[in-house]
Design a protein that fits this description.
The chain is 36% helix and 13% strand. By secondary structure, the protein is of the alpha+beta class. It folds into 2 domains: 1-54, no CATH class; 57-247, 2-Layer Sandwich (Muramoyl-pentapeptide Carboxypeptidase, domain 2).
């Protein structure tokens, strides 16, 4: 009984994290070398997803090349969280071209997009990101010597919050994590306001983009005045560690 509970828990966790990991674990349950078989099946399913996902209206974002757009970490690709609609991929590629044309050497980094299959399948911990229309991007960072191409403070691109307050009520159960115990661990990089505000402005002006989420205090400090740039609400996670945009 305990083994059934444990395997069921593993299947649920792997499915929530990667969408296809639960299937790989089910296949591995019938093998003697369970972990090895799991890795092999998972790798095969991930490769197959590259060709099957377009049938569900999804395409993968750039994972491994040194292009001016790439995923912030290979972890997003390993977990199959780098899939978006073709329009999102087209939009972010044009954004990265715009950024490197106006700021030579600039690298635009992607975070969570969506899983390869099925609208409505949750991409935790996000409240949306379930239809391929949304993508998170990192901020652009600098140090005392200037812009840092392809660098972020956090190893996963999230959770390094910019200083500033948003008027939200204190709640016992909330997704507005402050994570104060993490903040002192990040490198002493600063937000690059010129590049970050330029990227947000480009997205806000693009007719394909429906909305951009940025925390109100950051919108004010960056001098961003576009109707599309909005507050995501107090019920959702903070958006002063990344840029969220979605297409129509």
């Amino acid at each position: 009984m305990l083994r059934i509970v444990l395997n069921t828990t593993v299947i649920i966790i792997l499915t929530l994290l990667t969408q296809i990991g639960g299937l790989a674990w089910i296949a591995a349950l019938f093998a003697r070398r369970r972990f090895t078989v799991f890795l092999l099946v998972y790798a095969c399913l991930s490769l197959a997803s590259l060709w099957i996902a377009p049938m569900f209206g999804r395409v993968p974002l750039n994972c491994w090349s040194n292009d001016y757009f790439q995923m912030q970490s290979g972890l997003y690709c390993v977990l199959n969280r780098h899939y978006v609609s073709p329009i999102v991929r087209e939009t972010v590629q044009e954004l990265s071209d715009h950024m490197t044309s106006n700021f030579p050497g600039t690298v635009t980094l992607g975070l969570d997009g969506n899983f390869p299959f099925f609208d409505g399948f949750p991409l935790l911990p996000h409240l949306s990101h379930d239809d391929g229309r949304k993508l998170d991007l990192t901020f652009y960072y600098r140090d005392e010597d200037g812009y840092l191409p392809g660098k972020t403070t956090s190893p996963v691109g999230y959770f390094d919050f910019e200083s500033g307050e948003t008027d939200c009520p204190d709640r016992w159960l909330t997704m507005r994590w402050n994570l104060p115990w993490l903040q002192g661990l990040w490198p002493d990089f600063q937000l690059d306001p010129v590049r970050t505000s330029a990227a947000i402005a480009w997205l806000a002006k693009d007719p394909r983009v429906e909305k951009v989420f940025v925390e109100p205090h950051l919108r004010q400090s960056l001098g961003i005045n576009f109707d599309k740039v909005r507050f995501q609400g107090c019920h959702a996670a903070r958006h002063d560690d990344h840029i969220h945009f979605q297409i129509r």
